[in-house]
Every structure is written in structure tokens, then in C-alpha cells.
Design a protein that fits this description.
This protein is of the alpha/beta class and 395 residues long. The protein folds into 2 domains: 121 residues, Aspartate Aminotransferase, domain 1; 244 residues, 3-Layer(aba) Sandwich (Aspartate Aminotransferase, domain 2), CATH 3.40.640.10. The protein is 39% helix and 17% strand. α2 runs antiparallel to α10, α3 packs across α10 and α11 packs parallel to α13. The radius of gyration is 21 Å and the shape is globular. The relative contact order is 0.16. The protein binds pyridoxal-5'-phosphate (PLP). The site of pyridoxal-5'-phosphate has 15 residues, from α4. Pyridoxal-5'-phosphate (PLP) binds next to α4.
Length: 395
Amino acid sequence: MSALLGNYARAPVTFVRGEGCYLYDDAGNAYLDCIGGIAVCALGHAHPAIADAVAAQARTLVHVSNLYHHEPAGTLARELTTRGGFASAFFCNSGAEANEAAIKLARKHAFRRGEPERTTILACTGSFHGRTYGALAATANDAYKVGFGPMLDGFAFTPFNDVAALEAAIDERTAAFIVEPVQGESGVHVAEQAFLERARALCDERGALLIFDEIQCGMGRLGPLFAFESFGVRPDIVTMAKALANGLPIGAVLIAEHAAAALQPGDHGSTFGGSPIPAAAALAHLRVRDELDLAEHVEHIGNRFGAMLAEIADAHPDSYATPRGRGLLWALPVREPRIASQVAADLRERGLLVGTGGGNTLRFAPPLVIGDEEIARVREKLRAPFDRLRVTRAL
Ligand SMILES: Cc1ncc(COP(=O)(O)O)c(C=O)c1O
């Protein structure tokens, strides 16, 4: 029996090595990785530039805490804020922590402006923002909350992509509206342009901050570095994590100038946040993104990936419904209720790793460096599992 806590339903496979879009298990089997550590391994596995940056940084400086300055975090903050048009960056270790910081910042921002009653954090139905108490309170799915109550006060939900409901929901008590431009966990739902545009206007009119949770859909997954660039709507705060350092633990909150003074010394912090090794890895990631022109690549390859899934759904209408997604974040809904995990397990046995998502979907978040050869393999693997499931049931 494993000594690991039983809080994950881990698949019965042990990986020992990765390279590019492939993972290898302890028996030497290869798997085409179309979930990428849940939207983390944007450059693929064991990328030499990341490995070199980590090794060089490990030999130079590993930790000093946030009592002092160090070069990798300072440079990363400058790179991210310049590229995104923000004033300041706060670094932490994960997505949930990035959202915690954003939520705290939003409340403190209102407090410092003399509006201590402006405390509501408004989120969307279908949202997922993480497992810590603040992030969990902003997460819509009640299944994640059962037995963990009481939840934090001051969180409310409005239907995703419903402009009229949003008009009624943002008011003088709203500190911030937090939204994923593309919801990942709920089964890949893309925000409508009009919804995000109206959210921007309403937040401006009514004095609330607009937070985009780009933890899953950002860092180039939709093509541009930031998901908001793909929608042309600029938030006041962006939260990032997952792919930022291509597998090293780091989260970031990027903050516009008018909100950046909300947190002052002593207001918030993290011992490890933005420590030298993950920061160096994130800088290497940004450099390789530029060299490979991944923004351009993802726009094209993402369309081809989506077209491949649509082709599969068309060819197997009894098995799959129409795929949803953008860039390289896609969901393929499985028609027969509650079997998406079974289909994913079946695909894994045949060498293709996919995730699952809400609404009985298969989820795809492959490395952004995926090419046409890998897409052809995914197509080939996706064609077969239902035949096998049907055979299994018939026996
Ligand atoms: C949109 C979004 N926000 C927040 C999180 C939480 O990130 P982490 O698991 O790093 O805490 C996730 C993780 O899946 C996510 O997809």
C-alpha cells in the first residue's frame, strides 16, 4: 500500500522520464502526453533550456527569502509586467496561492480607498479557483466544499456568460469580479467576448476590480502570452501559475498601477514565493517561447487540434459531442454519461494521456510544442477506444 495520502485517484502507472510530448513509464512504455501535467508542461518534458536554467541557478543561489532582493525574481517581475502592461508582480508557489493573494489584495484595495464595506468577491458558476479556503470559497462547484464548512463569508456567484445577470450582480459592495477567460476544470467553456467586455465596463462604472484567473488558460495556451490578449479585454489583476515555469512551482499576481499600492509591507507574503530556481525556470520559459515564436505556432496548431477533435466527433456521433475550446485547451464531451474517466483510462492503456473535466468530458492541454505528427497520433488513438468499450460491454 502506498504511503501517499489517499486524496488523489492516481492512475496505476509510474513515470520515470519525459522528453518533449512523451512520457515513459517504469516498464519503458511511451505515452503521448495530451494533458501536460494539467496544462503545466508548455515546452514539453525535460526541455534542455529549463534543465540548464535550473541547474545553473541551483549552483548559484537557491534561497534567500523575501527579506532580500535577488536577480531572478526582479528580472521575472520586470519581464511579466512589461509584457502584460502591469505595474507590479507578486510571486507565490501555486495557483490557489495566487488567487488568495488577488482576493486579499482586492479587499485591501477597497479598504484603503475608504470603502471597508466593499468586500464581496463575485465569481462565476462553473468556476474553479483552487483548494485553499479563499480560492475554494470562490469556486462554484459545491462538491469540492462538502465537509469543509463553514466557508468564508462574502463570496457570490453569477452565471458564466450571462451579461444581464452580471449587470445585476456587480454592485457597490463588489470588491472584485474574478473570472477564468476559459474555464478549464468545468469542461473547457470559453467566455464570450461580450461577457468579458461588459464585465470590464461594469467594474469600471461600479468601482470593482476585474481579476482574470489565467492559471490554466494563460501562459500561451491560447496563443498570446496572456489569455486576456486573445480577448482584447484588459483586467486589473491577472493570476498565473501552472505553466509559468514549465513545471517548477511558482504562482504570480500581476497588478495594474491603480491597485498595486493596496498591499504594503507586512500585508501579505510567502517564504518561498518567487524563489530563485522557479524564477530562473520561468525566465528560460519566456526566452524559449520567444525563440520558438510559440504565440504564432499555437494559433495555427490549436486550430488544427480543434479541427481534428471535430472530425472525430463527426465520425463518431454516438460517442462524442461537439468539442469546445481555444488554442490548445480543448474538451471533447463523451455522450454516454459518467464514462469519461473510463475512456481516459482506456486511452492511457493505449499510450495517450488525456485529462477529464466537468460535464463528462475528455480534456486536452498538450505541450504547446505539439506538431502535426502528434496530432495525427491523437486522431488515431481517439478513433478506437469506443469500439473496445463496446466489445467489453458486449462480452
Ligand atoms: C483556473 C484555475 N485556477 C486555480 C487553480 C489552482 O491551481 P493550483 O492547483 O496550482 O493551486 C487551477 C488548477 O487547476 C485552475 O485551473
